[in-house]
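step 4 of 6: structure.
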Amino acid sequence: MATQIPACVVLGGGGFMGINLCRRLYRSGHRVRAFGRNCHFPDALRGIEWRQGDFADPDAVAAAIAGFDIVFHLVHGAMPLAANLAMTTDVQRNFVPSITLLDLCGSLGVKRVVFASSGGTVYGIPQALPTPETAPTDPICAYGISKLAIEKYLTLYERLYALDFRILRIANPFGPFQIALKGQGFIAAATVRALAGQPIEIWGDGSVVRDFIYIDDVVDAFEAAIDDQGPHRVFNIGTGIGRNLRDIVASIEGQIETVVDIRWAPGRDIDIPQSVLAIDRAASELRWSPRTAFEAGLGLTIEWLRDNRAAIAERLR
Amino acid sequence: MATQIPACVVLGGGGFMGINLCRRLYRSGHRVRAFGRNCHFPDALRGIEWRQGDFADPDAVAAAIAGFDIVFHLVHGAMPLAANLAMTTDVQRNFVPSITLLDLCGSLGVKRVVFASSGGTVYGIPQALPTPETAPTDPICAYGISKLAIEKYLTLYERLYALDFRILRIANPFGPFQIALKGQGFIAAATVRALAGQPIEIWGDGSVVRDFIYIDDVVDAFEAAIDDQGPHRVFNIGTGIGRNLRDIVASIEGQIETVVDIRWAPGRDIDIPQSVLAIDRAASELRWSPRTAFEAGLGLTIEWLRDNRAAIAERLR
């Protein structure tokens, strides 16, 4: 008997990570459905079933996930800054529907939930760099608190209802289909502006360090999470290497062969100075590690942003 | 100039801990207001302003806290088991209003929020006993997740809006005015039934260990939290001593001089096997330690439960 390839539904399938994940799953032979409020690049989902709906609508979510084996939960409407400005709205639109989702997964027989958590925010200001999964989790933004609380509920639902899950605490992903629409994605934002000959805004002095990971490597980790049978539930997904924003800008300048004008803005309270993830657990348990050299990933990203300049400009307008 | 005694409002002031806290604050000369959905012992709040209202109603909460310096947040409608059975309801009635409360505290100029968290649930299954404040927080019930998420929001609000706070992670409190109405309070529940000659139900085999602390000692800690100026925000409040349920029943039997019939029921998923809090931080920073010997506290509790048998029976009906 042939092993059945699990059917996968991606909640938040119209976003940056979602599009990339759907495309890969489709290529790998899964039945794939993408669910979301909107998709900025409908052509990118060619061959993939797209279902428009609101994550805060339980009926829409139930209809979207019924009959699927694996639910990828990549929804998060409010980005870090916005979540801080509208905390109860964030709770209502992301946290509460996430608990409802778990109820639905249980009643609809979903085999596993794979949750995209945030390696850059759940730890807060790290005591150790690179930061392992066992480090204290003291988020300093509402976005991180929400991600962390959903993680805790996943653990609870496995305990109470045997709902299987994996959590990926993803560092700072970048790559094609990221268009910096909601203020996230430094590389996308900076590259778009650099290509347009516009100045880049940097909060703080540019010494902020992040663990930038190319999206294909993140997608590798999502795929590995589908059938992992190990004892762990939480995995950091990053590169283990920190890069500061000045270095990123220098790399962009090098690749597009131009000098970028930087506008310095005051540092933000929600920015932690350094975030770099320890990825030993994913390496040993998921047999996963990032394969894309930073400069190569940056090149592919710049290429995509350049090829799609017109479409992106329209969507950012 | 004399130091102003801070005005205190106790949210959840009609409950077990709330009544005890209000009475103490009143005796200590504070202006005190108790706010809650209902108070089972209105006479106990004589001389204290009682304001009936729903914690989930922002207008009621705003009106209740306006003009007060210290807000004690002791509200938590759903007890551990109930919270697990109605997770999104719990989030709507406790978690969301708690965030709204923090917004209100900021806009109304509250000087400090003192939050009653749960030392028995926020840690989950402890890796170390007694458990220090720095231990991992992996709750295995919705009640604990909710308490933990509120803790995280307090930290965030201090960072973003300079809202001052202290968190007390309280072990298993017992004493007068606890009537085991919502299934919490093993000592109250067991004593009431023992006094009535009824069997006691114990989930599991009675080996479950808890850190039972007499309510007056908890109230001491609340008072110490009013003007603590140290660097810490989170304090375990327990005795550091674990007692199993069999031993508790034996103590009750000894004090009321009767043999209790125990009905054994299956263990519950939400019960962690052992919970004992390390209290060194509160000892050194708050200069607080529990002063009541267990048997003495139990004696006072039995005395109160005996004196109020008729009233309690009516309220439990």
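step 5 of 6: annotate
 - Chain A has eleven helices and 13 strands.
 - Chain A touches chain B at residues 84, 87-88, 91-92, 95-96, 99-100, 103, 134, 136-142, 145, 148-149, 152-153, 155-156, 159-160, 269 (CB under 8 Å).
step 6 of 6: archive
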